Amino acid sequence: MTSSPVVERAQRDETRVGPWLVVIDPQNIFASPDSDWGSPFFADAFTNIRRLADAFGENVLVTRWMPTADRSTAWGDYFAEWPFADKPASDPLYDLVPEARGLSPHPTLDLPTFGKWGPEIEAIVGRGAHVVLTGVSTDCCVLSTALAAADAGAHTTIAADACAGSTAENHAAALHVMGLYPPQLTVSDTAAVLSAR
Predict the structure, then answer these.
(1) Biggest alpha carbon distance in the chain?
(2) Contact 30, 138 (CB under 8 A)
(3) Which of 153, 154, 163, 151 is nearest to 188 (CA)?
(4) In angstroms, rounded to a whole number, what is the distance separating the alpha carbons of residues 154 and 131?
(5) Structure pTM?
(6) Positive or negative, the Cα torsion across 115, 118, 105, 111?
(7) Are 146 and 177 in contact (CB under 8 A)?
(8) CB atoms within 10 A of CB 188
């Protein structure tokens, strides 16, 4: 027996508004110890990202930071400061780490901005959705995404132990800042997120 189109649409909508896991920028440039931006905490964070992705099933999105911003803007100054990253988007530096390639059934969201929250994510998860943020780096792209998500009205949880900072101090500082935004932002951890599912 097949479902009616109305039932199928309702089931899709229910999945869409359910909690989503957003894995921010699990790329070689942030994971490799040889990279100027490599986080020494990436491997530990990724262990928890994997646990969360397994639990969230199809409700997982993965983003990538891409070096495609307009160089005539302040991004030009940024790439002048970090010339090692001023490479074509096709460079292997910007590839997902191998372990991240199967995390999501959805296409990777490739954006040239630190913050990944915007119409691209909202079109998938819905306005006011509950999202759990993970990834790198806590003190840049995760923080930028979290604040934009809060402003957009998303119910946002930060899985702190599934995020990797540039340094331990910067990770802690970013978590402190995000902790100043309740109830829009909640700083939590992998075990608590899993137990709430």
Answers:
(1) 61
(2) no
(3) 163
(4) 7
(5) 0.91
(6) negative
(7) no
(8) 16
Q: Which two tokens stand for residue 168?
A: 């331990």
Taking only the tens of pLDDT, the chain with its 197 residues reads: 443 333 343 334 434 557 999 999 999 999 999 999 999 999 999 999 999 999 999 999 999 999 999 999 999 999 999 999 999 999 999 999 999 999 999 999 999 999 999 999 999 999 999 999 999 999 999 999 999 999 999 999 999 999 999 999 999 999 999 999 999 999 999 999 999 98
Which of 181, 115, 175 is closest to 153 using CA atoms? Answer: 181
**Eight-class DSSP state of 162:** E
Helices (H) and strands (E) in the chain, counts: 8, 6
Helix, strand, coil percentages in the chain from 3-state DSSP, rounded to 5: 45, 20, 35
Query: Which residue has tokens 């649409």?
Result: 9
DSSP state at residue 84: G
